[in-house]
Every structure is written in C-alpha cells, then in structure tokens.
Specification:
Structural class: mainly beta
Helix content: under 10%
Strand order of the largest sheet: 26-27-38-29-34-35-36
Distance between the termini: 38 Å
Number of strands: 38
Number of helices: 2
Strand content: over 45%
C-alpha cells in the first residue's frame, strides 16, 4: 500500500508540473517564423512574422514556454497594415514584443510600405493601437528600455541604435552602427539584453537558410564597442555535429528569463521533408540557456537542439488542443484563418447562409499579386488530411470554388468545383508551377455539391473527391517540392485555403462551404 501511495504522489506531482522534464520541438509548428517573446509575471507572450497575410503578427500566450495558444493578432485593421498588391514574402517582417511600464509594444517592419513602426496595447489578446512610425530605417527592429530612455535597434548596413521618443517615434539621437557581426552574410534580428552590468547584443547571420546561425557580442556601454563571443556561433546546425539533424536553418532567436530564474531562447528553424525541401515554412523552436554570472550564454550545452528535448522545464501547463476543424457556425472566423493581403470583405459572409462560409467569386485569381477571395490556415503538420464540403451556386463557365495548397501566386495546387459549357459540374485538379498552368484531372459529377480532399505526407500532396462524403475517389498526386521555399524562394509556408474565383468580370457565382476538417496525422 505504501508503494502505491508513493507512486500516486509521484504521478500527481508530475501532473501538476513538479519537476517537469522534456518536451518536443517545434513548440509552435508550421509557418511561424522569427519568434520574439516577453514575460509578464508567470505569463509569456510570443509573436511571429506574417508577411503578406492579414491579419498580421499572430500573438500567442503560454504559462510554460512549451504549450502555446494563439490569442489574436497585433494588426487587425487596414489602417495598421497596408498590404495592397504587396509581393510574395513581402509585407510584415520580424516583429519584436516587449513589455514596459504596464504596456505591451510590438515593433516590426512593413517592407511593402511605411517602414519601421510599433503598436501598443494593455491587452495583447485585444485591439492594438494605430502605428507609430520610426525615423530609423533598416529591418528587424527591437526596443530596449532603460533609465527612462527608449532605444530603437534595427539592422541596415550594420546593427544600429538610436534613442527615440516613445510617443512620436522621432529620434532623439543620431543612429549609430555598433556592430556588424562576425562576418556572416545578412547580420540581422538584433535583440539587446542587460545582465551583470554587460549589454549583450544577440543577432543572426548567414541568411535564413541552411547556413543560419546566432551570434552574440557584449559591451559595458550601450553604444559599444561590442566584443564578440570567442565561441560564436552560439546556435547553428550548419556544422558536422548537426548535419543529420531533422531540424535545420536554426537562428533568429530571442532570450527570456523565466519566472523561476531559468533562461530560454525561442528561435526559428525548419524541418526538411523531401530531400532538402520543406513546405511547412520556418517554425518556432525552444531551447534552454545556461547563463552564468559574467559569462557568455550557452544554448542547450552545445549550440544544437533536437526534436525530443530531454531537459528540465517549467511546471507544465497543458492547454486545450486547437480546433483544426470548423462548421462555420460562428459569427466570425477564428484566429487560425488568414486572408491574402487586405481582403475585400464584401466577398465573404458567415451570415447569408447560416452554418456556411460564403465566398463570392472574384476576377482576382490566386495567380495575382492582389487579394483574391481566399481564406487559409497554415499547414502545421507534415502528415495531414484536409476536407472541404461545398456547393457552387449561380455559376457559369469560367467560375470556380474549391480548396488550394497555396504557397504563392506562382506555386499552388488547386482542387475545385466548376461549371462547364454543357451546364454540367466538374471536379478539376490544377497545378500552378511558375509558367506551367496544368489541368491534371477532371471528373464530371451529378450535381453542384462535392467534397474535396487533400492529403499531405513527407513527399506528396494527394487529391481526392467525393459526392456523398463517404467514398472518396483518387484524382492525382504531386511532389511537394514545387511548393517549397527551396524551389520558389521566399519566407512563408503552405496554407490550406478555400477560395472562389472567376474569369468573368461581372460574375455572380459564389461557393458555400459548410464544413472544413483538418486532421493531423501525428
């Protein structure tokens, strides 16, 4: 009996988070790059880049740095985020989140117009302020607060610091280049911390690909000179000891000291799937940091990380698993859905047919650098199945509505319902690969309603359809590689989207989507 009681105590102690050990990377999967984190008490808030997608800059909350919940976005209004006709992988770059005197600040760059700016709020899950633009240029900005002064740091020709007026964004001092890194290309993503009387300047170098790395320098003065760590880089998977690691491209990180005194770093990386290709985009990873007094930080012992991290953690606070599916019964889309650029909201409705998302076809197509009628959610798993149920209404030849695995205007695979010139409805599968626009398969169906399905795995997307939602018939499959950043360039990941478009300028067609089911195969 004593042995049973002891065992129960151990189990219950672990359940409540005592002496927690181990977690899996990434802690936020799928297209969530450039993470930045801040702590308020025992609450943690994290933001990531969003590029051409609207709303911009997703916000996450956690109690343990491992289990994260998406709670909203920083940029939810067109007045905050102008993305008109922005290029793929342009828009919003590399945000930083900081907390100062009871207020949250998110600072970022809109490379498609406006430059560096910040917004603020008292409630990170709510609405954020209108942008305050900053005179200093560059990208990847951050804020540092000390002694009543507000410092703005960005990278251009080098890591540059100035003091600013926090109300207006105007510089109070000239911008000064304080460090250019260790010689790696693209020194970027600066973050500044003070510890033991030292200013530590953390950056990334090598480009956000396989050669990515994090380096660090320090100084007794905020304006330098900064001396680099003799053991740089402090995080990289470019070396031989990580050449077979399932995580690659590690870099662009941000330190945080937890409420128990331990130190951690969040950073981006990607998981190659098919040879060197990946379609999930750059994800958010976590590692412990050993940071002794007057010493340089050491990440996870040797500057590499793993999928399975067998290290002590904060007491674990599991959160409700995200709802990957929806029947569109709510009055607005959840925070998991995104539009391409600034949406034309008159083309979207959750009220015209209760329990359905109505997408009105637009002459703007997925091939355009514009805002098609499209909503998508990030592909967050290598292995998954996504199914959409829809009907196509008031359609003529040239109208279509369906589902897409979307990377960019030059790279997307679409399975959709359309009306042909004989009045019959067809399910069609189309591959967009640069200049190649290929109809891979077409099947005539008996009505205007269909179930469309895409299954993803390590190497392929496979497409199916059904007329009854029970028996799914195979259409075709294609390699993932053309939707990868290695093939296309760019900084995003694949979104599984719903769309409606038309070749007819005055189309009246619309698609009613009454269900979307996304199932990860873990």
């Amino acid at each position: 009996m004593k042995r049973i009681i002891t065992l129960l105590i151990i189990v219950l102690g672990f359940y409540h988070g005592a002496d927690a050990q181990g977690y899996k990377n990434p802690v936020i999967s799928g297209f969530h790059p450039d993470p930045s984190v801040c702590r308020v008490g025992d609450d943690y808030y994290l933001v990531t880049s969003s590029f051409e997608y609207f709303p911009g800059v997703p916000v996450f909350h956690s109690k343990d740095l491992i289990n994260w919940t998406k709670i909203g976005h920083c940029l939810t209004r067109p007045s905050q985020l102008k993305l008109d006709k922005c290029a793929p992988s342009a828009g919003i770059y590399a945000p930083t989140i900081r907390y100062h005197e009871g207020r949250f600040y998110m600072v970022t760059t809109n490379v498609s117009g406006g430059g560096n700016f910040y917004v603020h709020t008292d409630n990170p899950a709510g609405e954020w302020s209108e942008p305050v633009f900053v005179e200093q240029g560059g990208i990847d900005p951050t804020l540092y607060f000390e002694g009543g002064k507000n410092y703005f740091i960005s990278n251009g020709e080098g890591i540059t610091i100035s003091e600013i007026d926090l109300k207006t964004g105007k510089r109070l001092t000239e911008s000064k280049i304080v460090w250019k890194g260790t010689g790696g290309r693209y020194p970027e993503s600066p973050h500044l911390y003070k510890k033991d009387g030292w200013y530590y300047l953390l950056i990334s170098e090598g480009g956000t690909e396989y050669g990515h790395k994090m380096t660090i320098a320090r100084s007794r003065s905020i304006y330098g000179p900064y001396d680099p760590n003799p053991s740089n880089p402090i995080l990289t998977h470019i070396n031989e000891n990580a050449q077979s690691n399932p995580i690659q491209g590690t870099g662009h990180g941000d330190f945080v000291q937890a409420h128990d005194g331990s130190w951690w770093v969040v950073f981006l990386g990607f998981r190659p799937q098919s040879l060197l290709h990946h379609v999930l985009g750059r994800e958010t990873f976590l590692a412990p940091v050993r940071w002794d007094v007057n010493a340089w930080p050491v990440i996870n012992g040797n500057g590499t990380v793993d999928i399975d991290m067998n290290v002590p953690t904060l007491p674990l606070k599991p959160v409700k698993q995200p709802d990957y599916s929806t029947n569109f019964n709510e009055n607005k889309l959840s925070v998991n859905w995104n539009y391409l650029r600034n949406p034309f909201m008159e083309n979207y409705s959750l009220t015209e047919k209760k329990g359905s998302l109505r997408l009105k076809a637009s002459p703007v197509s997925l091939d355009d650098h514009d805002s098609p009628t499209f909503v998508g959610r990030r592909q967050e798993h290598i292995n998954f199945t996504a199914t959409a149920s829809l009907s196509l209404n008031d359609a003529v030849e040239g109208d279509e509505a369906g589902m897409t695995a979307y990377y960019s205007p030059q790279a997307h695979y679409d399975v959709f319902l359309k009306k042909s010139n004989n009045g019959k409805y067809k399910v069609s599968l189309n591959y967009k690969m640069g200049a190649l626009d290929h109809v891979a398969q077409e099947v005539e169906i008996p009505g205007d309603h269909a179930y469309l399905q895409v299954k993803g795995d390590k190497d392929f997307y496979s497409f199916y359809y059904s007329v009854d939602g029970k028996e799914f018939k195979f259409l075709s499959k294609i390699n993932i590689w053309y939707l990868s950043s290695e093939t296309n360039g760019g900084f995003t990941g694949v979104l599984i989207g719903l769309y409606a478009q038309s070749k007819n300028k005055n189309t009246k067609a619309y698609g009613d989507f009454d269900e979307f089911i996304y199932k990860p195969a873990l």
